[in-house]
Design a protein that fits this description.
Strand content: under 5%
Largest sheet: none
Number of domains: 1
Low-confidence stretches: none
Number of strands: 0
Order of helices and strands: HHHHHHH
Helix content: over 70%
Number of helices: 7
Length: 136
């Protein structure tokens, strides 16, 4: 049976992985908002549900493989590498989603919820598949 002292020996690693996850998530959000032609934050502040749905799906779609990387990485550097891969996959998903709906950003700006759901669901699906592939 572990004592509290033994458990606390892992605290530095917990903090290292948590800090890395928060840092990677912030980098992801900056890159994602730079890549998309629409201003997610402004649209969300303006109560645009389509933008919020798309952004939430994208954020969860990134976080799922990041969580998988944290759970399965042998070292912190592995986590960072797989986190960057998760970021790239989500950006690729954004561009793939635009193939059947070329003006998706304009539609999201107009508040067309179906476009936000489509982008959010595709991002979430991409993240789920990405996370599953990281564990094989």
């Amino acid at each position: 049976m572990e004592t509290v002292g033994t458990s606390l020996n892992e605290l530095p690693w917990f903090l290292a992985y948590l800090g890395t996850a928060v840092g990677l998530t912030l980098v992801y959000m900056v890159v994602y908002m730079w890549v998309t032609p629409h201003d997610e934050i402004k649209l969300i502040r303006d109560n645009n549900s389509a933008a919020s749905i798309a952004m939430v799906g994208s954020l969860i779609g990134f976080s799922l493989p990041l969580a998988s990387a944290i759970a399965n990485s042998a070292a912190l550097v592995d986590c960072v590498i797989w986190g960057v891969i998760a970021l790239v996959v989500q950006i690729v998903v954004f561009y793939l989603v635009r193939l059947p709906v070329p003006k998706i950003s304009e539609r999201i700006e107009k508040g067309e919820t179906a476009s936000g759901i489509w982008l959010g669901a595709a991002s979430l699906t991409g993240g789920l598949l990405n996370a599953a592939c990281m564990t094989s």
